[in-house]
Amino acid sequence: MRRLIPAFATLALLTTPAFAAPCKDAKGKFVKCPEAAKPKGPCKDAKGKFVKCGTPGAKPIK
Predict the structure, then answer these.
(1) Structure pTM?
(2) Any signal peptide, and if so, which residues (predicted)?
(3) Given this model, what pLDDT does residue 49 score?
(4) Sheet holding 50-51, edge to edge
(5) Which domain holds residue 37?
(6) Tens digit of each residue's pLDDT (9 = 90 or more) over 9-50
(7) DSSP string of 1-62?
């Protein structure tokens, strides 16, 4: 049990900066972080076949 407590404390210290990563602008000031781009779902063409999103005539499935 005594070995687990330092291990958990170390793990907590290592993971904390990942959650609190602030964003900075070009001048070094803290700003609101931009939202991550949402992954697009699959797209279908006019015939109903699955195609890459971005091809001409492709529409995203809702």
Answers:
(1) 0.35
(2) 1-20
(3) 93
(4) 50-51, 43-44, 59-60
(5) 4-60
(6) 665 555 444 455 678 889 989 988 887 766 667 899 999 999
(7) -TTHHHHHHHHHHHHHHHHT--EE-TTS-EEPPPPPPPPP--EE-TTS-EE-BTBTT-EE--
